[in-house]
Amino acid sequence: MLIVQKYGGTSVGTLERINLVAKRVAKRKDEGNAIVVVVSAMSGVTNKLIDYAEFFSKNPSSRELDMLLSAGERVTSSLLAIALQELGYKAVAFSGRQAGLKTDSFHTKAKIELIDPTSINEALNDDKIVVIAGFQGVDKNGDVTTLGRGGSDLSAVAIAGAIKADLCEIYTDVDGVYTTDPRIEPRARKLDKITYDEMLELASLGAKVLQNRSVELAKKLNINLVTRSSFNENDGTLITGEKKMEGAIISGIALDRNQARVTIRNVDDKPGVAAKIFKILSTQEINVDMIIQNIGTDGVANIGFTVPENELNQTLKALSNLDDSFSVESDSNIVKVSIVGIGMKSHSGIAALAFETLAKNGINIQMISTSEIRISIIVEAKYGELAVRILHEAYELYK
Ligand code: ADP
Ligand code: ASP
Ligand code: MG
C-alpha cells in the first residue's frame, strides 16, 4: 500500500518522541508499504516563533512571518529523516517547495493550487521514505507560504491526493474523533466512523482534531482518512463518505473559543446598507458568521454578527473606514457551542432540548444559528465548557 502518515505537534514534541515516530514509520515500511510522512512543528514551536516576531512588531509582515513559521516544520522533517537513516532506512526530507506544493500568495492562509508530485514519486521509486515539512508551500514568486493554523493536516490530505495514496493517516494525541473534546468531557465516546459532512461541520466549528480544509479536500478527492493516536495501537476513527448507519441523531458537540461578536447600531434601514458592510469584510477575507438583523424602527436597525476573535481588530478597522453614522460595539468574551448530526434532518425537537438544557442551568443564549445538520449557540465564555458537558449529557452522547 501507499500510505501518507501525518504526525502532529505533540507526537513529535520531543526528540525521544521523534525517535518513536521513526520506529512506527519503520515498522509500516517493513510490512511492505511505501510511506510518505508529513510532520508538524514540535509542539509549542509555532506559537513560540509567533511570539518572537511579536517581540519586534505588533503587526509583522505576513511574508516574513511565513518564512519564520515554515522553519518549525523543516526542523522536524529533517530530524525525522536523520532518525530514520540512523535506523538503517533510506529517507529524504523535503520542504513544501521541494515536495512540489504550489499555493496562491495569501501569506499565512494560503490555498494550495497544485502539487507537482515528481520529486516525491522519484524518491518513492528509489525506495526512500519521504518526510515532508507540513503547513507550507511556495507561491508563483518563489516565496514561502503557510496554510493556516493546523495546516499540516491539509498538506497530508493534498499530498495523499496528488500521489494517489491508498490511505491517509492523521496521527495525533487522542485516539480519534470523539463525541466532543475528551479534554472537556472525559465521558466523550470515540467514534469508529464519521461522515465527511459531519466531520467538516465539527472541524469548522472548533473541533481542532482535524483542520476543516483538510476534511473538505478529503471529501472532494474521496480520500480514505483515518485519525488515530501516535501513542498506542488502538483503532482510530474512519472519516468516510458512507451514509450514516442507523442510530445516533447527533454525532458530536464542538466548542469554538476563537469567536467575537460585533454589533452595529443605528444602521440605516434601507436596501444596500448590509451589502456595503459585508462586502468590505469579505474583500478582506474575514469569515463572518451568525448574522442577525432586527426589525427596524424609526428608519434604523441593528445588525449583529460573529467573526473569529483573531480577525476582530481587522474587522473593526474595516468598519471604521465606512463613513456611516452607525456605532460599532464588540465583545470577545463569548464562545460558540455547536451540536452536529445528520440525523437532525429527519428529527424534530433537537433544538428545543438544547435551549431547555441551557435554560435549566441558567446559561443565557446570546445568538443562535441553525443549518440542516447543526445548531450553533453563542454563550458567555465562562459557560462554554459547562454547556458542552450538559449538552453531551442531555443528548446521551456517552452511550
Ligand atoms: P495535532 O497537534 O496532532 O495536530 P491538535 O491539537 O491539532 O493535534 O488536535 C488534537 C486535539 O483536538 C485533541 O488533543 C483534543 O483536545 C482536540 N479535540 C477537540 N475536539 C475533539 C474531538 N471531537 N475529538 C477528538 N479530539 C478533539
Ligand atoms: N505548526 C502549525 C500550527 O501549529 C501547523 C500544524 O501543526 O498543523 O498550526
Ligand atoms: Mg492539528
UniProtKB/TrEMBL annotation:
One of its GO terms (cellular component) is cytosol. InterPro entries: AceGlu_kinase-like_sf, ACT-like_dom_sf, ACT_Aspartokinase, ACT_dom, AKii-LysC-BS, Asp/Glu/Uridylate_kinase, Asp_kin_monofn, Asp_kinase. One of its GO terms (molecular function) is ATP binding. Pfam families: AA_kinase, ACT_9. GO terms for biological process: homoserine biosynthetic process; lysine biosynthetic process via diaminopimelate; threonine biosynthetic process. It catalyses: L-aspartate + ATP = 4-phospho-L-aspartate + ADP. The keyword Magnesium does not apply. Substrate binds at T46, E73. Keywords: Amino-acid biosynthesis, ATP-binding, Kinase, Lysine biosynthesis, Nucleotide-binding, Transferase. It comes from the Bacteria. ATP binds at K6, Y7, G8, G9, T172, D173, Y178, R183, K208, V209. Residues 262-333, 339-399 form the ACT domain. Its EC number is 2.7.2.4. Pathway: Amino-acid biosynthesis; L-lysine biosynthesis via DAP pathway; (S)-tetrahydrodipicolinate from L-aspartate: step 1/4; Amino-acid biosynthesis; L-methionine biosynthesis via de novo pathway; L-homoserine from L-aspartate: step 1/3; Amino-acid biosynthesis; L-threonine biosynthesis; L-threonine from L-aspartate: step 1/5. Belongs to the aspartokinase family. PANTHER family: ASPARTATE KINASE, ASPARTOKINASE. This is Aspartokinase.
